[in-house]
Specification:
By secondary structure, this protein is mainly β. About 5% of the residues lie in helices and about 65% in strands.
Length: about 800
């Protein structure tokens, strides 16, 4: 009886314990863990994008889940039950990798760290083969291109390297995306004075040898600055992370303007021929334990026939003027960047960097003007432009990695100082006299940027939020020194100060399941701009504006299957006038064309919608998109003349509404092991609605334009031939159709580039040889109709260049 009672008591005590044990066991069995990690190359520590990750059960080798790494080499395996597994990693060009992996039940997240893949070089003794990534990322909002893959433009500038990229063209020293130059250019994710704030500049003098890769973002999310309706180009500078001391040195050279494409008009100085180019570069890196120190220096010297344009200008009164503009340019560009990354523990990283850029440009030019039958020289205008641009940027950043993978807080502060020191001298030779004009410009730009970015992964996506603040101050001073018969307006000089403050906040939410991806974001930006003008200026007065505007972005994607995806994009963006666009000082484009800023210029706002489709196919991929842009307050430069004068004034104005619609297709394929090609085609229609504006300088003029519409596009074919494991060739052909420009159009043009690269010294050395515009067919032709005149022009500037060089890494 006592025993039974005791047993009964024990049963009452044991029963809850057994229930608890089963509850714990059940909890352990139902618990799911998210596994994350990254894959990099063993030698360079560069990320391996689009590698295959397979998680298998150890007991029966059954696959549980498989994914591919993103373009940065990262991967996430969600919903994994605790237990023993094998992780298999494979990628084309690398040896397969396997690792035993235990997944515990105490944490919801498991970070496996970095896995290193070794190149599969069992049959190769001279070179390490790496797999080329799929240029279009999984979100279909960004394309990435390694500079090392662009053999036909090795040794040139960044602008020259970009012109061979799909969907990219160049015009008047600026890069265009889908025929639009409203592009925001970043360096390592930041705007700098080297490439321009709210604009783009200096790309033709930034050496491509300093660049690791170029990212093209056609549909930026709300986390990016709202400026630039055409999209964003992000230039990633080289920065090694190999263990120990390592680096790379290189030297390239070349010659352009190999022969005269068109002879000069009589009585002017010779045009440049056999122009030399030289580009030494060096990249050093030291990494030990938690510290990474890097240094990079590039120097680019070029002599260039920068312009050789022949113009026939006809005025409404029947006067005909024939003109040539020949510009010989010398450029010295120095770029130095250094920094230190300190991972003082697994969760916190500090980084400091400094960048110095110096751009020295000297132009010697001649502009003869003749009558209709070239029997009389009306004027000879010779000029010297001496310009020095100096940039210093100092950056500091802090990154905190929370325990949960992907849960990150980033903060950064950047300060940029940029000085523009320009001197111009003009000798104006008329039939009866010779005089000299001159003017000088000094402009200092100070920019402070502060950023806070927060990202946290969620069960089915992630949340991003952040704050940006920019303060930008540009005092400018221009002085004119006119000669006796000068057309220069000495009273238009003086001082002006530009200041803008832009605080902005953003939030972005991303959702994903096995079929659907959705991303919704909102950026709210406030801008306050003040432009202080010298009170003695004859036309303009102090002006400015402010706005508080929302900039939403949306992306919705549907996975048709594992290899096909549809994406729909929408965003609203702005193009804020840059300081140069509103700068009040007149400046010569040539002897009879004067460009002037407009302080009354206001931003243009753009709404963009795009539908994209991507399919991964055997040995390649296909990408296509259709897009539509609606612009309100279109910024354009208007050319006008005043009665009784041959002078033409180019002044920026807001021209009302415009739109662009187009399609783009990109096909990448490798049909055989030794040959691959990339075919890109873009077709778009530009429309500028009829508008009327009042132009204030040099006197009040009402200008009206009828509706302009033109369909244009371009086709590019890039062929790569792998003759052996160490010898690669490229052949690039591009055709650009006629395109609309303010008050006119550019005509079609065609060019062909070729390049050859040889790997030597067990993969440490590299030789290259290339030639641009192989058949000398590239000529810029324009037709323009202005207020009181029209002109046609052909620019035979330097397009044919041969380059050769050597790089060595250690």
């Amino acid at each position: 009886m006592h025993y039974s009672k005791h047993l009964s008591i024990k049963k009452k005590e044991i029963l809850p314990f057994i229930v608890f044990c089963f509850s714990v066991l059940g909890y352990g069995q139902s618990k799911q863990v998210t596994i994350s990690g990254s894959v990099k190359e063993t030698v360079s520590l560069l990320p391996v994008g689009y590698a295959n990750i397979i998680l298998k059960q150890s007991k029966n080798n059954t696959a549980v889940i498989s994914v591919i790494t993103d373009e940065e080499g990262n991967f996430i395996l969600p919903g994994v039950t605790p237990g023993n597994y094998t992780l298999d990693i494979s990628s084309i060009g690398y040896s397969n990798f396997s690792k035993e992996l235990y997944v515990g039940s105490l944490s919801d997240f498991l970070n496996t760290g970095v896995f290193l893949l070794t190149a599969d070089n069992q049959e190769l003794s001279e070179v390490i083969i790496t797999a080329r990534q799929n240029e279009v990322n999984s979100h279909m909002d960004k394309k990435s291109y390694a500079i090392s893959d662009n053999i036909t433009q090795s040794g040139g500038s960044v602008l020259q390297a970009m012109q061979n990229l799909p969907g990219v063209t160049t015009q008047d020293g600026k890069v265009q995306l889908r025929g639009n130059d409203k592009v925001t250019v970043l360096i390592d994710g930041k705007q700098t004075a080297i490439t321009g704030f709210n604009s783009q500049s200096g790309l033709d003098n930034l050496p491509a040898s300093a660049i690791e890769k170029i990212e093209i973002i056609n549909n930026p999310s709300s986390k990016y600055d709202a400026n630039g309706n055409a999209g964003i180009i992000n230039i990633i500078l080289k920065k090694n992370k190999d263990e120990g001391f390592n680096g790379k040195v290189g030297l390239s050279s070349g010659y352009g303007a190999l022969w005269k494409r068109k002879a000069n008009l009589p009585s002017i100085r010779p045009q440049y021929q056999l122009t030399p180019k030289i580009n030494p570069s060096m990249s050093l890196n030291y990494r030990k334990e938690k510290v990474n120190i890097y240094f990079q220096a590039d120097y680019l010297y070029t002599e260039t026939l920068n312009k050789n344009e022949f113009v026939t200008r006809t005025y409404d009164d029947g006067t005909i003027v024939n003109q040539q503009t020949k510009r010989n340019r010398n450029t010295h560009f120095t770029n130095i960047k250094t920094g230190i990354d300190w991972n003082y523990n697994d969760n916190n990283t500090l980084a400091f960097s400094a960048l110095y850029g110096s751009e020295k440009i000297i132009d010697n030019g001649d502009e003869p003007f003749f009558n209709a039958d070239y029997s009389q020289r009306l004027r000879l205008w010779q000029f010297l432009e001496d310009e020095l641009k100096t940039t210093v940027m100092i950056s500091g950043s802090y990154r905190h990695q929370f325990k949960e993978p992907g849960h990150v807080l980033n903060t950064s502060v950047n300060y940029t100082f940029h000085r523009e020191n320009e001197k111009y001298f003009f000798d104006n030779t008329l039939p009866s006299s010779t005089d000299r004009d001159a003017f000088k410009l000094l402009s200092d730009e100070s920019v402070l940027d502060m950023n806070i970015d927060y990202s946290r992964p969620l069960v089915s996506g992630k949340l991003e939020a952040g704050f940006r603040f920019r303060n930008r101050l540009i005092p400018a001073n221009m002085r004119f020194y006119p000669g006796e018969n000068s057309v220069i307006d000495a009273n238009a000089g003086g001082k002006a100060a530009y200041e803008e403050s832009i605080p902005a906040i953003y939030s972005n939410y991303v959702y994903e399941n096995n079929r659907i991806e959705a991303e919704a974001g909102l950026r709210v930006e406030y801008l306050d701009l003040e432009y202080e003008v010298d009170p003695n200026h004859p036309v303009y007065r102090t002006d400015g504006y402010h706005y508080l505007e929302p900039f939403p972005s949306l992306r919705f994607a549907y996975k048709l299957n594992q290899n096909q995806k549809l994406s729909l994009f929408y965003n609203r963006r702005v193009d804020r006038p840059n300081e140069v666009d509103i700068r009040i000082f007149p400046k010569y484009d040539d002897a009879e064309i004067i460009k002037v800023g407009n302080p009354s210029l206001r931003p243009q706002f753009t709404n963009t919608a795009e539908l994209g489709y991507k399919a991964d196919i055997s040995k390649g991929y296909f990408f296509a998109s259709a897009y539509y842009k609606q612009v309100d307050g279109t910024i354009t430069r208007i050319a006008t003349s005043t009665p009784g004068s041959n002078l033409i004034y180019n002044v920026f104005q807001n021209a009302g509404k415009s739109n662009m619609m187009g399609i783009e297709a990109l096909f990448n394929h490798k049909p055989v092991s030794w040959y691959s090609y990339n075919l890109n085609a873009t077709l778009y229609r530009n429309t500028i609605d009829a508008f009327t504006v009042n132009i204030l300088y040099p006197e009040s003029t009402v200008y009206s334009s009828e509706k302009q519409q033109l369909t244009s596009g371009n086709v590019k074919l890039n062929n790569t031939f792998n003759f052996s494991a160490t010898l690669t060739a490229q052949l690039m052909a591009a055709y650009l159709a006629p395109d609309i420009i303010p008050q006119g159009k550019t005509l079609g043009r065609f060019s062909t580039d070729i390049g050859l690269k040889k790997i030597i010294q067990q993969g440490k050395g590299e030789l290259f040889l290339n030639a641009t515009d192989l058949f000398n067919t590239l000529v810029i032709r324009k037709e323009v109709r202005g207020n009181g005149f029209n002109f046609i022009s052909k620019d035979y500037y330097e397009t044919q260049v041969i380059r050769f060089g050597y790089n060595y890494k250690f």
